[in-house]
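Human: Note token order:
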Amino acid sequence: MLKRILVPVDGTEYSWRALEYASALARLSGGSLVVMTVSDEDTPAPIVFAGEDCLVAQIGNEVLDVARAIMLGQGVECSYLLEHDSSVTESILHAEKTEKCDTIVLGSRGFGTLEGLLRGSVSQVIVENADVPVIVVK
């Protein structure tokens, strides 16, 4: 358990928290990470905060480049996966199986209860449908 951890990132503060948490878990367990992002042409570019500067990153290779920079020197084996799909949840669930991951760590966007119910959160769908344990980081 915790030998191959899937970490979906999208450039938000919540996904970077999830990456840091998953990195710590991987170091403790001797596991590795599969860091993935899902690109959709209709998705606006997220804002990535780095200290006092604000950088705009596009979903895709740019987000994975930021993830690589964060993971540099952390002593955790990582692979990086870029998926092009309009369904983020289907891509994450598919990657969990094809990459043979035993855990998923993802960030919560912090929707309130009502907003989360109306919009349906990615983390909620993953928790309900994944075949492996899911850790949601706030």
In short: Residues 13-29 form the longest helix (17 residues). Residues 4 and 101 are 5 Å apart (CA to CA). The chain has five helices and seven strands.
